[in-house]
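Notes from the 1:1 (GR / supervisor)

We went over the backlog. Supervisor wanted to see one worked example end to end before approving the batch request, so GR pasted a single chain during the call. The sequence is below; no edits were made to it. Supervisor asked that the structure be written out right there so they could see what the output format looks like.
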Amino acid sequence: MSLFIVFLWLPLLFLLIQLLFYKSSIRYLPFLNTLLCLILLALLLLLYQYLSQEVLQASLIAPMPVDISFKLDQLNWLICLFCILVWLASSLYSIYFMKADSLNKVKRYQIFSTLNLYAILLIFLSSNMITFFIFFELLLIVSYVLIIHYQTQESFAAGIRYLFFQIIGGLMLLFAVILTYTVLETTEFVPGGYEQLTSNPFFSLIFWFFVIGFSIKAGLFPVHIWLPEAHPAAPAPASALLSGMVIKTGTFGIMRVFLELFGIQNIIGRTDIFILIFLSIFTMFWGSAIAIGQGHIKRILAYSSVSQMGYIVLGTAFLSPFALLGSLLHTLGHSLVKSLLFLSAGSIVNDTGKADISSIDGYGYKNPFVFTVFTIGALSIIGFPLFINFISKWTLGVGFMEAYQLNYFPFWLFIIALSVLLLSSILNATYYVPILIRGWFYPSRDHSIPIKLKTPQIFSLAMLAVLIVSLGIFAQPLIEISMQALSAVIPFAYYTSPF
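Structure output shown during the call:
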């Protein structure tokens, strides 16, 4: 318990240090985020040994009329682990990436990066919906600062659009929380949820307030409009965080509400679920289809993220144990892959001075390391075997079949979902493979000497690439840990393994 409290308070201590040394040299402040991530990672690994015996619970502050409390179970332990890994990679990369920025901009970025990490960890660790909502709204403010980092007309426009949509999403969640509390007189997350909530006449209203509020953060169609503007406007390390973890708070929120407020067994067969499935299917197709027509590399990656959020929400909406497992694995895999793609794309743009895909011609020969790790990320997101996203997409397909065999959904819906899963992967290849061909096989238009990456940047990219490949080849430990995390809220009875 004391170790968990240290874990909760440590980012606040680092924030205080960053503020106290705000006027210090630029050399030291950027390393504090990296050090924080390393300590949090060590603490989280030490905490895992206690989770087989109990769920750890704690309050960040003294008891209040509103319960601000947290719990650490195997599910949020796993997603916190990947969150810290993504932050570690981005923090390492940002140390030298922003060397051309002013001192004040760098310091502001580092402080708000820590605030974003803290808000997201507290969202994942929330033990009730009120706590979740409070830090979900805090994330709106602190992530806005990352988007407007460059303080250009483009970044301010993207920031305003982001704020507009997120405020609407926050209001939706506020209404959902109020209605939930009115019905239950609690918002505590409990395994299996509350039948009293799903049997209430106003349940459909509560359902869509939650889903729309979370979908705006996740970038699900048709409330995805802010996302393709925010990612290109932000610096590469911030884009990696936005796509790698910030939008995952939305998909994780949907999963958490389904598992521990509604209860999977209470929402099977409801019309609301069918509508969400079709929205997710269209998001998968729409994001990939729009990405094909983009010429700006970061906009391609942004629309790709929209499509991938469709995968995750579709897995959650199919409700079967392996569909939920596929959704969780895709959440974890996408966090690593899209972080790698945005960071490596940032190196390409920084090196060539252009974000148009024509600038990639021959870049594989100019800077083979950067383009190799970009290739690893692209092949993984397409779903090639031996990469982590192949495992998650395969598991999603097994989950769709399991849902049909459990009579959750009719055969025709299973066929549509599986077909769109395959079609979306083909569309992924349609916009990623030409980029890879241009980089490896086209003659270079730029004969300048490439910008040499610093050791922290190389380590950051290499770490993500190694994780993506190793978790694709040696996937069984991750699958077992993920199944164990989900088994507390939904039993794995029909299948015991996706392979």
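Supervisor's comment: Residues 382 and 425 are 5 Å apart (CA to CA).
Batch request approved.
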